Amino acid sequence: MSDDADKTQDRLEKENAIRRKEMDSIKYIKGTGHCLNCNTKLNDSRRWCDKDCADDWDYHVNRRK
C-alpha cells in the first residue's frame, strides 16, 4: 500500500516528465532572424535579442498552458 510520500513522488515524476517534454519542443524552435518576442531584427540565428526578451517570451508561453 502506498503512503502519501509515494503518491507525491509519483505525481512529481509525472509533472517533471511533462515539463521535460515541453522544454524539448521549445529547444527545436529555430531562430528566424528576428527576436521571437519583440521582433527586433537579429544578425545571427539567435531566437531572442536579450535575456529579458527570452524571459518575457517564456513567461507568456507558459502562461497560455
Structural overview:
The chain is mostly helical and 65 residues long. 57% of the residues lie in helices and 0% in strands. The protein has helices at residues 4-27, 51-63. The longest helix has 24 residues, at 4-27. It is elongated.
State the domain count: 2
Structural class: mainly alpha
Number of strands: 0
- Strand-residue fraction? under 5%
The major sheet is characterized as:
none
Quick structural overview:
This protein has 65 residues and is an all-alpha fold. It has helices spanning 4-27, 51-63. The chain has two domains: 1-30; 31-65, no CATH class.
Question: How are the SSEs placed, and which strands pair?
Answer:
Layout: H1 4-27, H2 51-63
